[in-house]
Design a protein that fits this description.
By secondary structure, this protein is mostly beta strands. The protein contains 2 helices and 38 strands. Strands 16-24-22-18-20-19-23 form a 7-stranded mixed sheet, with helices on one face. Strand 25 and strand 26 form a beta hairpin. It is globular, with a radius of gyration of 27 Å. The two termini are 19 Å apart.
């Protein structure tokens, strides 16, 4: 089956760098009016997957049309996947993606998975027996579960001569040595829809307080008709979507919004339909955004979202496809042949954000040691997020000769630079989203060889993708006020605080760590800026000559974006 190769995928999946609760879609780069120096506007959207619960909400959304749930006889073992999968009619293989999970398991374990294809005779066949034993139409395979879950990719192919639209049930079970067991049924259908969505032109130069109106043009290029159309709509809270009666809304993250809309109307082969215009308000936090639409004939399984997501039924008119809806959802085994069908609407707003540098020196032992706190505050009005999921702007900190860091906070690392003046540099990752009014700080443990000497250092904002450089002069193109992008401090016997502004903000601090930090900072209302340490998104703060801490300006412009959920097939 997927035994050996899947174990490799599992080991990759289990790496800490990629197993947090947030998944990222592939990076995209676009250029727009905010970048007057050719800087790419980057953004990323949160894919909130896994976790449990939401059974009642799933029923609310789909009236019982979601995938049949896994039934755990013991423990917390589950199997999850789509209610139906489409098989190509050209004889090519379709990979069915399912997940086996045991979130309460404390150690890796081997599960025994059975794949019962007896109801698929003449319809579909399983295309791999590697690592499995076969008995008639049932295959038994050993599957390794690491870090609480593993992904199954089961190759199936439509049987030769199978009739278009023919459908049969695939039955899976799983069992673990600790007594956990689960089962899952899904339908395999020959053929399916093959939806496409016409690209949406960008809307630029929008004003705060205006309204965005957009629709979708959807065509079914596949051989089968659907009976229902489901649309996931992702936007940041800076662009709240208007209310519609057949949508569920989730704003629980405080940064991003999700609407799941169920339209009881199918799309016939060759038919093109038009989604009613959908409206979004442009708030003061908007700058560079995108709105993502994902389209599928299958209901959205809310169980794949986190238990912290809070879906609320919308009010107001129902969205339609320009033709009457069925009185109620019509069950269907028709699935989508394409991957991630949808469109993105890119939006730019005439707006800006004011990043403010913060710094303080708290000496101890007569100034021979102490704590250096550096930070960033966004005085708005816009929220800033990195489209690539990287730091919105790194803090580049330079410590002078004779001053060294004894402890480095989580999210920071030393730059690999040599300097004739004996300076050292660190870069700190400020994470990929800064809401208006938010603040993030980093505490360094510092040792000073001579507190009576003049010690000046520098900290500045730099583009999170820029290389470390003692002479960096980056500018933040969304920030029209570079005057407060720097602060100065002296490393001496006296405490010093330098803050260009004293406006209130929500503080988020990363705790110091010695070598491989694993800080657990507090979480501000409406945002998630917890540090995981290291990784490709971690910056480096640096040490500078002279006793000045300066927070400069970075050069990239960032857009507020949400990480796209890979939802279908």
């Amino acid at each position: 089956m997927v035994n050996l190769s899947q174990n490799l995928r599992t080991l990759t999946h289990d790496c800490p760098q990629v197993t947090d609760s947030y998944r990222r879609r592939p990076h995209k780069v676009r250029w727009d009016q905010f970048s007057n120096q050719g800087d790419p506007v980057l953004s990323a959207r949160t894919r909130r997957a896994t976790a449990a619960g939401a059974t009642a909400l799933t029923a609310l959304l789909t009236a019982g049309l979601t995938a049949l749930p896994a039934h755990a006889a013991a423990g917390t073992l589950t199997i999850s996947g789509q209610a139906a999968y489409a098989l190509p009619t050209d004889g090519s293989t379709q990979q069915l993606q399912l997940t086996i999970a045991d979130p309460q398991s404390t150690k890796p374990q081997l599960s025994k998975v059975t794949i019962d294809t007896s109801a698929l005779a003449g319809i579909a066949s399983y295309q791999s027996t590697a690592g499995c034993t076969a008995q008639g139409a049932t295959f038994t395979c050993d599957e390794f579960i690491g870090n609480g879950s593993t992904e199954l990719q089961l190759p199936f192919q439509a049987a030769k001569g199978a009739k278009l639209g023919a459908s049969g049930k695939l039955h899976l079970t799983a069992a673990t040595p600790d007594g956990g067991s689960a089962s899952f049924d899904t339908a395999l259908t020959v053929g399916g829809t093959k939806l496409s969505v016409k690209p949406l032109p960008a809307q630029n130069g929008l004003k705060v307080g205006s309204t965005i109106t957009t629709g979708l043009e959807i065509t079914n290029n596949g051989p089968l008709a659907s009976t229902q159309t489901n649309i996931e709509i992702y936007s940041d809270t800076a662009l709240p979507m208007h209310q519609y009666g057949n949508c569920l809304y989730d704003h629980s993250s405080g940064i991003e919004s999700l609407a799941i809309c169920t339209i009881n109307t199918g799309i016939a082969p060759g038919e093109t339909v038009h989604l009613d215009p959908v409206q979004f308000d442009v708030t003061s936090q908007a700058l560079g955004e995108d709105i993502e639409f994902n389209v599928s004939p299958q209901p959205v399984d809310l169980a794949r979202f986190s238990s912290t997501d809070k879906f609320v039924q919308g009010s107001g008119p129902r969205l339609t496809l320009g033709k009457p809806e069925s009185p109620a959802p019509i069950p269907s085994t028709v699935a989508e042949l394409n991957m991630n069908v949808g469109a993105d609407l890119e939006v730019s707003v005439d707006n800006s954000a004011d990043f403010v540098a913060l710094g303080s020196w708290k000496p101890q032992a007569g100034g021979k040691q102490g704590t250096l706190e550096v930070g960033l505050r966004n005085d708005g009005p816009a929220m800033i997020s990195s489209r690539a999921g990287s730091s919105v702007a790194d803090l580049q900190v330079i410590l002078p000769a004779g001053v060294k860091a004894t402890t480095v906070p989580n999210g920071c690392r030393a730059a690999n630079l040599s300097d004739p003046a004996g300076r050292t540099m660190y870069r700190c990752d400020t994470k990929d989203t800064q809401l208006a009014g938010s603040k993030i700080t980093f505490d360094f443990g510092i040792q000073v060889d001579d507190p009576t000497a003049t010690r000046n250092g520098l900290v500045d904002f730099v583009n999170g993708e820029a290389p470390s450089d003692f002479n960096a002069t980056d500018k933040l193109s969304f920030d029209p006020n570079p005057a407060n992008n720097s602060v100065q401090l002296a490393f001496g016997a006296q405490a010093a605080t330098a803050s260009p502004s004293t406006a209130p903000a929500t503080a988020i601090s990363a705790a110091p760590a010695s070598s491989a930090p694993t800080a657990s900072p507090t979480k501000a209302a409406g945002q998630d800026l917890a540090f995981t340490g290291g990784g490709s998104n971690s910056g480096t703060i640096a040490a500078v000559g002279a006793g000045v801490v300066v927070l400069g300006a970075g050069a990239l412009v960032y857009a507020n974006r949400r990480r796209k959920a890979a939802t279908h097939n």
